[in-house]
Design goal:
Blueprint (H helix, E strand, L loop, with lengths): L1 E9 L5 H5 L2 H6 L5 E11 L4 H4 L3 E7 L2 E7 L3 E3 L2 E11 L6 H7 L13 E18 L2 E15 L2 E15 L2 H10 L6 E2 L4 H11 L1
Antiparallel strand pairs: 1-6, 1-9, 1-10, 2-3, 2-7, 3-4, 4-6, 5-6, 7-8, 8-9
Length: about 200
């Protein structure tokens, strides 16, 4: 298990071109940004057992490879989130029940694989910068996500910036966000894509 610590911020779609061309990136990154597509399908039971326990289960496709991720209940304050995360590669876009059994939270009771069904999806383009910050010292991955959450005929726009701590002092996340906020209208958001997906599911 790893602990995911990230700061999630929303921004207006029209400010994406400005964000991508900020002098900030040349100053604090040593390599060009990486851009790729991510497709995700989220699973739960028909009665939303995982969501009620604030657990998220997904299969992610990236560059033709598939990954399964389980995220557990965490805490989120003003966009800063800490939660447990397990992720591993799988051969095809089907749930790896054997692997899931190994990390399944006891609080959810016995895992019944036939009860897990796909409920909604997210589809977005991610642009990543790797920031080296000196005071406080930290390595941070900054990811711009732009795309959609879809459930049935309902959809919602994804336009957010995630600052994820790789190593170092988590206070650097807010310091970096403050620097970027001088040029971009950034607002903290405590809702994950999964939480937004479940909200959308209720309307579909």
């Amino acid at each position: 298990m790893s602990t995911e610590t990230e700061l999630k911020l929303s921004l207006p779609q029209e400010q994406i071109p400005v964000l991508k061309t900020l002098p900030f990136w040349k100053k604090f990154t040593s390599s060009a940004p990486e851009t790729f597509h991510l497709g995700n399908t989220y699973f739960d039971t028909a009665s939303l057992t995982l969501n009620q326990a604030r657990v998220a289960l997904r299969i992610r496709e990236k560059n033709g490879q598939f990954f399964q991720t389980l995220k557990t209940r965490g805490e989120s304050i003003n966009g800063l989130t800490r939660r447990g995360e397990w992720e591993w590669s799988i051969e095809r876009p089907e749930l790896d029940i054997a692997g899931l059994q190994k990390v399944w939270p006891e609080a959810l009771g016995a895992l019944t694989s036939k009860d897990l069904i796909p409920l909604f999806s997210t589809d977005f383009e991610r642009t990543c910068w790797r920031v080296e910050w000196s005071e406080p010292t930290a390595r941070v991955e900054v990811a711009l996500d732009y795309g959609h959450i879809c459930s049935g005929d309902e959809s919602s726009v994804i336009c957010e910036l995630e600052l994820e701590l790789v190593t170092g002092d988590e206070n650097a996340l807010q310091t970096i966000a403050d620097q970027l906020a001088k040029a971009i209208d950034l607002k903290p958001t405590d809702k994950s894509k999964a939480e937004r997906g479940f909200e959308l599911l209720q309307r579909s």
